[in-house]
Amino acid sequence: MGAYTFNKNLINFSGLKFVKLLGTGSKDGFSVIPDFSSYLIISSWENDHFRKKFFEENEIINEMISKSHKRTEIKIDPYNYIGSWDGINPFENESSYKEGKILVLTRARVRLNKLINFFINTSLAAKSIYNKKGAEYYKGVGELPIIEQATISIWESEQFMKDYAYSDKNHIEIIKKARKDDWYSEELFVRSNVTYLKEFK
Which of 25, 39, 128, 144 is close enough to 140 for a disulfide, judged by CB 3.0 to 4.6 Å? Predict the structure, then answer.
């Protein structure tokens, strides 16, 4: 994946507003050891016409797909978002919760002098989401191990996500420590309706 990260034929495409190619962590996603079998592309488009054209015509993305054993395509409709990613928020959108499945994205840039504190605490709490009712998927992802961290989670409903976020002791403690110790130089939180989810093999 690294060979494609700065490929101009991938990142300079009509209608493309934002794109990130991300690696994933092994085990619970927060391991310093990468999961070399799993990668993620996040993109934002002016409209769906440009996105479809990208998959039909772009040689780089189709080369990546041809090398994949399996891929999952997810379309989202963001309705709640705060913060920024590289100084912008690519998820700004006028919408509301549609009473169905949601995807939650959290992303943060960890301050260099907070790395050890961050890693120890999040490693202990990362497993708290597993086996939580309503949690369909969870993975730690990022641009750089530990420093540029993000999480992707999919929930059966917003209420299941809230039940976890506002009642799990480990999760609440992590949020308190992050604020108290000022772990992040930049962060972003997004909730989105899942409008399309399909696996391709």
Answer: 25
The order of strands in the sheet holding 102-110 is: 34-45, 16-25, 135-144, 148-155, 102-110, 184-200, 71-83
The DSSP 8-state label assigned to residue 111 in this structure reads P
Tens-digit pLDDT profile for the chain (201 aa)?
Answer: 555 555 556 677 889 999 898 888 887 666 777 888 888 999 999 999 999 999 899 888 888 889 889 999 999 999 999 999 999 999 999 999 999 999 999 999 999 999 888 877 776 666 677 778 999 998 888 887 778 888 899 999 999 999 998 888 888 888 899 999 999 999 999 999 999 999 988
Q: Is the dihedral of CA 115, 191, 193, 88 positive or negative?
A: negative
Beta strand extents in 3-134 (DSSP E only): 16-25, 34-45, 71-83, 102-110
Q: In total, how many domains does the chain have?
A: 1
The neighbour count for residue 169, using CB atoms within 10 Å, is 9
CATH of the domain at 137: 3.30.70.100
The alpha carbon of residue 81 and the mean position of all alpha carbons in its chain are separated, in whole angstroms, by 13
